[in-house]
Design brief:
The chain is an alpha+beta fold. The protein contains 14 helices and 32 strands. Helix 6 packs parallel to helix 7 and helix 9 runs parallel beside helix 12. It is globular.
Length: about 525
């Protein structure tokens, strides 16, 4: 072991000794204060953390500390110990022998961690890793195991923040477990006992933090595994307690495709027809679609049903495999707010940038659709929340603007907690790449390829010409603060409005939800030329 690993082992020893002096399980679970992560701190957590901090101070260990309970402790060092003093606190309180002290050392991000140490405080099992030198358990080298999709054994987070996809995955694999200790669950993948560890949280604030997985991250990488966010990119997280993520840790990258792929239809597809009845020729277009779908099973939203004399129901209740919309981009956006079923649009509006089929191509387009000659283009949405309120995930953009005509407002914009700009303007747009060809573009923001994972932050009618758009990674948390004590509105995709009191902060992050557009393989740049450059 290196000197640093020996230090981490000594810290684990004193933590084990300190928590062993807590007389009962009931005493372990007593809440003693509120932690830096905003949740109550149990006695066992506080004793473990204090023990680590005391050891570092007494032995002059040259490390800053980022810990679950106390937050960041600046000791003037170049590197930081990322610490979860007790991972699996509920297990420890209940007497379940699956709880650890988790420690990792790096500079600023998960990806630059170079040393990791993990100990199961109940069993004494110890794992450690150094970057480029492999991962070990009790002195024996660890390796991930070969992938066998027919016999998958998965660790899956199924806690009270779990997304529906997690429960669906549990039904698809041969066997799964939820142990309530993320560091050990990921470590089981590293030592070849499990194929993967999947965590998908339906709320950003319930996602994983860097302190939970810092040590087991390096263990898994050094054992030959991979860790991805749910977009398929290598997971990386800054050393802070604010950033959260959903992820897949796996021994074989091929597992990602199995876990995240859409369920195959496996039967004759059911089509849903959604119509904007206010557009010219709406009934004519709907009848042409129905003629082209002759022999197919079709269900209708309420507007389409009224036009065609058929029973209909609201979009969110439609049970279908593919949604066909007739209208403009607004019709597509309204539909995408209410369903995650793949959508294809017939353009009967204006530019119709999101629509795939022009009105003069209905028959040919539907024929391609019926024979399955298409791909599905999956894009991310964004979540917006304020004062504990979550609103509809946006496909295009979240807009925060004045609630009074011709009245300017003052805004501060933060990216991952850092002040990016302060502007006086009518509002602020936070747009996805999908939305970059919409409202953001009209304000001079760049057009962004739909496959780029980024947000664009755009001031609206800013007082100063120097207020320019920002393009930031989609992994960022963008916060827009309405500085003045005057009201604003949060508008989602131009469809849904939410009043904001003066002083409100709106947090915007990438959503777990996706929008799926059916595509006939027209590339993005051809679409830009056709729909925008050549448009009137």
């Amino acid at each position: 072991m290196s000197e640093l690993l020996e230090t981490l082992a000594a810290i684990a020893d004193v933590v084990k000794e300190a928590i062993g002096k807590i007389p009962t399980l009931e005493e372990r679970g007593k809440d003693v204060e509120m932690g830096a992560d905003g949740t109550p701190t149990s006695l066992i957590d506080k004793i473990a953390e204090n023990t680590v901090l005391d050891y570092i101070a007494r032995h002059h260990v040259p490390l800053n500390v980022l810990s679950e309970e106390i937050g960041y402790v600046d000791n003037g060092a170049e590197e930081t110990l990322v610490l979860d003093p007790i991972d699996g606190t509920s297990n420890a309180i209940a007497g379940v022998p699956m709880y650890t002290v988790s420690m990792a050392v790096g500079r600023k991000h998960l990806s630059d961690i170079h040393t990791a140490y993990l100990r199961n405080l109940a069993t004494g099992e110890t794992m450690w890793a150094e970057k480029g030198k492999g991962a070990f358990k009790d002195g024996q080298r660890m390796h991930v195991r070969p992938l066998n999709l027919d016999a998958l054994f998965m660790m899956i987070y199924l806690g009270n923040g779990a997304a529906p996809e997690a429960f669906a995955l549990a039904k698809r694999v041969k066997s799964s477990r939820a142990y309530g200790c993320a560091s050990l669950e990921m470590a089981l993948v590293a030592e070849g006992q499990a194929d993967g560890f999947y965590m998908s949280s339906e709320r950003y604030v319930r996602g994983i933090r860097v302190v939970d997985i810092a040590a087991s991250y390096l263990l898994l990488i050094e054992a030959g595994g991979k860790v991805f966010d749910l977009r398929g990119d290598p997971l990386d997280m800054p050393f802070d307690l604010e950033t959260r993520s959903s992820f897949l840790a796996c021994g074989d990258p091929a597992l990602f495709a199995f876990v995240t792929r859409s369920t195959a239809i496996g039967h004759a597809p059911v089509f849903a027809l959604v119509v904007n009845p206010s557009i010219p020729h709406a009934k004519e277009y709907a009848e042409r679609v129905m003629k082209a779908l002759k022999g197919q099973q079709v269900v209708f939203d309420e507007s389409a049903g009224r036009l065609l004399g058929q029973p209909g129901e609201s979009v969110e209740l439609l049970k279908a495999d593919i949604v066909i919309t007739i209208g403009g981009d607004g019709t597509i956006l309204r539909t995408a707010l209410k369903t995650q079923i793949p959508i294809i649009g017939i353009n009967a509006g204006g530019v119709g940038f999101l629509a795939e089929i022009n009105a003069d191509q209905i028959e040919a387009g539907i024929a391609r659709l019926v024979r399955g000659d298409y791909t599905i283009d999956e894009r991310f949405k964004i979540d917006s929340f304020y004062d504990g309120n979550y609103v509809e995930p946006a496909v295009n953009e979240a807009v925060i603007h004045t609630d009074s005509v011709a009245k300017i407002r003052q805004f501060k914009v933060y990216v991952d907690g850092n002040l990016a700009t302060e502007v006086r303007a009518d509002g602020i747009i936070v747009s996805t790449p999908t939305g970059s060809t919409c409202y953001a573009m009209s304000l001079g923001a760049p057009i962004i390829d739909s496959h780029v994972k980024a947000f664009v932050i755009v001031p609206m009618a800013a007082y100063k010409f120097t207020s320019r758009p920002f393009v930031v990674p989609s992994t960022s948390k963008v916060t827009v603060e309405c500085v003045l004590d005057k009201g604003c509105l949060l508008v989602i995709d131009g469809q849904c409005e939410h009043p904001l009191a003066g002083g409100t902060k709106v947090d915007i992050t990438i959503s777990k939800e996706k929008v799926r557009f059916i595509s006939f393989n027209q590339d993005f740049y051809s679409r830009v030329r056709e729909k925008l450059v050549n448009a009137i």
